[in-house]
Amino acid sequence: MSHNRDDLSEEDEFALADLLPQYFALCRRDLEHIRKALKDENLNDIRLIGHNLKGSGGAYGFPELTGIGLAIETAAKTGDRETLERQIEEFANFLRAHG
Questions:
Q1: Contacts of 22 (CB under 8 A, 6+ apart)
Q2: Residue 8 lies in a domain
Q3: DSSP-derived 3-state class of residue 86
């Protein structure tokens, strides 16, 4: 179940704030991995990263990451390179804005 960050208690918000720098560092690592996987045409790695992003985005209160992850996962399953490139750029833009 995903949630919105606005639904968190003050205590949960502080705990989440402590975890976010590490989470975003992992996301930046995943972004580099996904870019390399796209160059290598490794759609399975891209699919897995998208799947994990879909879950973690919701868990950390970022529904937009859940949507990006779902789109990446789906595009990797179907081999839709254009969508992959667009969604990878959306992921990068999200990280620039938040991480």
A1: none
A2: no
A3: helix
